[in-house]
Design a protein that fits this description.
Layout: H1 9-24, H2 33-47, H3 70-83, H4 85-109, H5 114-128, H6 140-155, H7 165-175, H8 180-194, E1 195-196, E2 208-209, H9 215-227, H10 234-239, H11 247-252, H12 270-285, H13 292-295
Antiparallel strand pairs: 1-2
Length: 296
């Protein structure tokens, strides 16, 4: 009997997606902020502590400073010290590939065809390509998609997986200030759990409200929120992201691209716009009605 290799399409599509991401994210480091992150990571390793005041500036030396991305900066400097610029490239490639593959896995868990799931991963890469630099913010989609996996697992009956939100919160608060997004997602998920859809799905009427169903999500979310206090700055570290929208920092963020509303007239926003339109069309024509969490 002649042996014929079995074609594992999900595996092959995932490998192809990872290859595309690694190729796209392989480029010289061009973001000037990288060197500030490396200097901070070096300072932390040399002094064996996280700085509380500004050790670098001439005009603001000694001013209070919350190094909220300290863990990512230590990782970046360790890679740079041991592998040079290749270490920074490795960081970009592995983190970008992890984000794309996590999105690919989310799609597969929703019974999306592997080819379409890989295409979603490519669109993800095209959208984030301008941010593929060795900076802590590259971890934001990875942490976000990890949270979505936790919620999907809980929704599929593996209720204990919800507790993974706690270590995720601890990691996130020490690596990047976008940890606030975890609790936005948790709140949306709790709302979707509290509303019981009719048997015919989201498009039908007859919704019922059962707040008790959301209590486990709220309880774990509360524990995760308390766990974010496990950072070198405690409560100040937790509240720090909100300072970007108040006082003097609130004025400066008006000129930072990451905090501005998306401008879809720019060419680099074409892919995100197409993704939004495509998602709306898919939700509208899909024979399977989306659940409330997907819509939220």
């Amino acid at each position: 009997m002649k042996w014929r290799p079995k074609l594992d399409l999900p595996l092959l599509a995932g490998m192809a997606l990872a290859g595309v991401v690694i190729c796209v994210s392989c480029h010289p480091e061009g973001d000037p902020d990288v060197w500030w992150h490396l200097a901070t990571g070096r300072w932390i390793l040399e002094h064996r502590q996280v700085p509380k005041t500004d050790p670098f500036s001439y005009s603001a030396a000694g001013a209070p400073w919350i190094a909220h991305e300290w863990a990512a900066e230590v990782l970046l400097y360790w890679l740079y010290r041991n592998f040079g610029l290749y270490g920074l490239s490795l960081y970009r490639q592995l983190v970008a590939a992890a984000g794309a593959l996590l999105l690919y896995a989310v799609c597969l868990r929703r019974a999306v065809h592997p080819i379409l799931a890989a295409a979603a991963g490519v669109a993800f890469v095209a959208t984030l390509a301008p941010t593929f630099n060795a900076r802590p913010q590259l971890l934001l989609p990875v942490f976000t998609l990890a949270a979505l996996h936790i919620f999907l697992s809980h929704r599929q009956g593996r209720h204990h997986t919800l507790w993974w939100l706690v270590p995720l919160a601890i990691l996130w608060v020490n690596f990047h200030g976008g940890f606030v997004l975890l609790f936005v997602l948790t709140a949306l998920y709790a709302v979707s759990v509290a509303f019981v859809p009719p048997a015919d799905g989201l498009r039908a009427g007859g919704w019922s409200l059962s707040p008790a169903r959301a209590l486990p999500v709220v309880a774990v979310g509360t524990v995760a929120a308390l766990a974010t206090l496990l950072n070198p700055n405690g409560l100040h570290g937790v509240l720090y992201p909100f300072t970007y929208f108040t006082g003097d920092l609130g004025e400066t963020t008006r000129y930072v691209n990451e905090f501005l509303s998306p401008n879809f007239s720019h060419a680099n926003m074409t892919v995100p716009l197409l993704l939004i339109v495509g998602l709306a069309i898919c939700l509208a024509v899909s024979p399977k009605a989306p659940d409330l969490f997907e819509v939220l």
